[in-house]
Design brief:
single chain; 8 helices; 29% helix; globular
């Protein structure tokens, strides 16, 4: 038995934040000193590297679990199922519900439980839990759903990736421009057809790489040093991703028995355009080939990096024909891949 995505949905917040909205930010170096160049230069360099032109933030009254609920409703509707028949709700996030204007994450009860409550699922045998796996969390949730379904423990799972990263960023750190909010959700079911998941790969690198993403104090020395924000060693993450992700993708594709020429689309975590392009180049180089045109749909230009939400949102937009110059057809082979805090890397090959 394979698993199959029978329903997909996403929620893209309505609040657009343009790069120009950061013109008046006071960006600082790690030691608190001012940059030697103005913000327009900072923004131009940022766009050139990441490809991000705008990102979406959740409206003030909405939280991560609200976005997840909206995406889940769409996935359930897309799958045309009764939500009472869902066996597991697996919710990938990183920081819980963070109310607007605060920086404290709320995870009691779990966000998966909150979504179950919002969906008004009465069945107590629908088990709801959260996973923390960095940006690759949604893919890891799909792999867990695969384990439950193929082992016979479940027939149907709801896998969610949702985050409001805009609420845990240091406004004085230029990396804050990367992050965005959003949600994606999928209904996963068992299938005896030729379509569905063909292979997977997952791993955690935690000896030298564990703290490449971490919580740290603001670059503004006047702020409370005990208040923590998302921080990262960007160059180390970039080098790690280029070293580990292509190899994991190759291993995954090799396990599937699919020739690389059959891969029609690669949906990779939307973190940094140049990094994603470099990963794809190295992946194809492992097969002594060059990537074909149109292999990698991108949403980062308009949506930014919404962490666990980027991959399911990208898949939803692709299936709905909402990514310009990209489409998929029945029987197409797709590769999903992600990298993020942990440091974690995962991937799966899927026949649509």
């Amino acid at each position: 038995m394979k698993i199959k995505i029978t329903g997909i949905g996403s929620y893209i917040p309505s609040l657009k934040i343009q790069n120009t909205d950061f013109d008046q930010h006071v960006f600082l170096n790690e030691d608190g000193s001012a940059f030697a160049y103005p913000n327009d230069v900072v923004i131009d360099k940022f766009k050139g590297i990441t490809g991000i032109e705008e990102r979406r933030y959740a409206e003030d009254h909405l939280n991560s679990s609200d976005l997840a609920f909206f995406a889940s409703e769409k996935a359930i509707e897309d799958a045309k199922i009764d939500p009472e028949t869902i066996d597991y709700i697996i919710y990938a996030h990183n920081f819980g519900d963070v109310n607007h204007g605060t920086i404290q994450g709320d995870t009691l009860p779990s966000l998966a439980t909150r979504v179950k409550n919002k969906l008004q699922i009465k069945n107590p045998k629908c088990v709801a839990y959260d996973i923390l796996f960095g940006c690759p969390g949604w893919i890891e949730g799909v792999l867990q759903a695969n384990a439950f379904i193929t082992s016979g423990m479940a027939k149907r799972c709801l896998v969610i990736g949702a985050e409001t990263l805009s609420r845990v960023v240091d406004a004085h750190d230029r990396d804050s421009m990367i992050y965005a909010d959003g949600a994606g959700a999928a209904i996963i079911e068992g299938s005896d057809s030729e379509t569905g998941m063909l292979s997977y790969e997952s791993g955690t690198f935690a000896i030298d790489e564990a703290n490449y993403l971490f919580f740290g104090k603001s670059y503004n020395q006047d702020l409370n040093p005990n208040t923590r924000y998302i921080k990262m060693y960007g160059r180390k993450i970039y080098e790690f991703a280029l070293s580990k992700v292509p190899a994991a993708m190759k291993s995954c594709l090799d396990k599937s028995g699919i020739d690389i020429s059959e891969v029609k689309k690669i949906l990779i975590h939307q973190a940094n355009e140049k990094m994603d392009e470099a990963i794809i180049q190295r992946f194809y180089k492992l097969f002594k080939q060059s990537p074909p045109a149109g292999i990698m749909p991108m949403s980062i230009h308009e949506l930014g990096n919404s962490s666990v939400a980027t991959v399911p949102t990208l898949f939803d937009l692709l299936t709905k024909g909402q990514i310009e110059n990209h489409e998929i057809h029945k029987g197409d082979v797709i590769m999903f891949a992600s990298v993020g805090a942990g440091m974690n890397v995962n991937a799966f090959v899927y026949r649509y």
